[in-house]
Amino acid sequence: MTSAPLAARLSIPSGPLFFPVTAYGPDGAVDLDVYREHVRRGVEAGAAAVFACCGTGEFHALTPEEFEACVGAAVEAADGRVPVVAGAGYGTALAVRFARLAETAGADGLLAMPPYLVVAGQEGLLRHYRELATSTSLPVIVYQRDNAVFTPETVVELARSEGIIGFKDGLGDLDLVQRIVSAVRSEVPGEFLYFNGLPTAELTGLAYRGVGITLYSSAVFCFAPEVALAFHKALNTGDDEVVNRLLDGFYRPFVDLRAQGRGYAVSLVKAGVRLRGLDVGEVRPPLHEPAADHVKRLAELIERGYALIEEGA
């Protein structure tokens, strides 16, 4: 266990960043016992951090009370071994409320997701994230995706803001990412963290590594942690033979399967967790469950992934 600041604990990528799914029981209510077990297994498997109640964890579907309970359960299950970062989102007032609930629940930091519905200008986005960062003592990572897309100049201002420690990219515009990294490096002294936040981030791991970004979220870690760990080790040691074998044989087919349905970035992952023996329930609407033949293909892909890492053992 360590009490080091979040930025220091995340700066060395000791393993993938774990984004657990949120477990629901047969009645549709949050199942905290199963959720704790899911988080505990991920931590013991080698996750570098737990990002609770974020995109994969269906933040959008949780009430504030459920959110606080889940973040508290994640903190309990992690038991100080790795940091726990909680999601926060919607409009500024609600984002602040979720941030304060996360702080009360014992989280180590926040992943600030895009504001709800509106497409705001740079000035409004900057104000939104600064107000969120000053609302609690928790350090904030800003998530770029969908309706929250930033210019390099705005990210420079974010990096200068008290309490904002990092930037997660879920857009995938590498030209923009490179300009952001360069601008912050040139104008803001000190370390600022960057994360590859694309769905199935491993697929773009080589490209982001070229920009100097080695931290990434791994949804695959939820249901195939050994495969995710093998890829992470290969990517960070420059073993591109293993990287490419896993990309060609597992990750690219998985992304192709994920593209077969809207919301599969969450529901297919949840199906994968169930396939591996932990009943985390189904997704909540408006997401839907993957088709039966897609789940069958996922089971085959998981077997293929484990066979590929055995080949390199």
What's the short version?
The protein has about 325 residues and is an alpha/beta fold. It has 12 helices and 8 strands.
Structure description:
Helices cover 50% and strands 11% of the residues. It has 12 helices and 8 strands. Strand 2 (49-52), helix 3 (64-78) and strand 3 form a beta-alpha-beta unit. It is globular, with a radius of gyration of 18 Å. The relative contact order is 0.12. The mean pLDDT is 96.
The rough form would be described as globular
Low-confidence stretches: none
User: What class do helices, strands and sheet pairing give?
Assistant: alpha/beta
Percentage of residues in strands: 5-15%
Pattern of helices and strands: HEHEHEHEHEHEHEHEHHHH
What gap, in angstroms, lies between the N and C termini?
30 Å
Mean pLDDT across every amino acid position: 96
Number of helical elements: 12
Main β-sheet description: 8 strands, parallel, barrel
* Spatial order of strands in the largest sheet: 1-2-3-4-5-6-7-8
* Helical content band: 40-55%
* Radius of gyration (Å): 18 Å
Task: Please tally the β strands and state the result.
Answer: 8
Secondary structure: elements and pairs:
Blueprint: H1 6-11, E1 17-18, H2 32-45, E2 49-52, H3 64-78, E3 84-88, H4 92-105, E4 109-112, H5 122-135, E5 140-144, H6 152-160, E6 164-169, H7 174-187, E7 193-196, H8 205-211, E8 215-218, H9 225-237, H10 240-258, H11 264-275, H12 292-311
Parallel strand pairs: 1-2, 1-8, 2-3, 3-4, 4-5, 5-6, 6-7, 7-8
